[in-house]
Specification:
8 strands, 31% strand, Ubiquitin-like (UB roll), alpha/beta
Length: 172
């Protein structure tokens, strides 16, 4: 089964040009020769003839072990995916009437999440008639932002989103 990266690279008998510029396995230029002669040189060295620059005139081909090349390429791609760090968004929820101790617990959680490198979404949910007093939630959000200002920055200001107010914090 061929991978998409393999489909657009011509190898050995798949090369259509009459003449090709050949580069040896060590990077040495072997010159311009017919495709048949280049294939013969490749078979003699037990390597593949791989078209590396199909738009050049004549096309440039390289002598290499194509299977090993594909394996190394896949290995590099896996390593680069492994090196990427996914940014996590953690969420803490409050209510406009949240008690002081519970707010302190939430602030501790925000500190922990920020130290781990995660972004933190602070959500204040309104129930019933609490929605008519968004200034209470706004004050609570401002308090959280000021108390956490040394370890997080406010990425998005507090805004109403349906029956809740949301603010996004990112680590410094």
């Amino acid at each position: 089964m061929r991978s998409p990266a393999q489909d657009n690279t011509r190898v050995n008998r798949g090369i259509r040009a009459r003449e090709v510029r050949v580069i040896g396995a060590d990077g040495q230029q072997l010159g311009i020769m017919s495709t048949r002669d280049a294939l013969a040189v490749a078979e003699e060295n037990e390597l593949d003839l791989v078209e590396v620059a199909p738009n050049a005139n004549p096309p440039v081909c390289r002598l290499m072990d194509y299977g090993k090349y594909l394996y190394e390429k896949q290995k590099r791609e896996r390593e680069s995916r492994k090196a990427q760090k996914q940014i996590e968004i953690k969420e803490v929820r409050l209510r406009p009437k949240t008690d002081e101790h519970d707010i302190q617990v939430v602030l501790t959680k925000i500190r922990k999440f920020a130290k781990e490198g995660a972004k933190v979404r602070v959500r204040i949910r309104f129930r019933g008639r609490e929605i008519y007093h968004p200034e209470v939630a706004q004050e609570l959000m401002e308090r959280v932002a000021t108390e956490m200002s040394e370890i997080v920055t406010v990425e998005s200001r507090p805004m109403l989103d349906g029956r809740s107010m949301v603010m996004l914090l990112s680590p410094v």
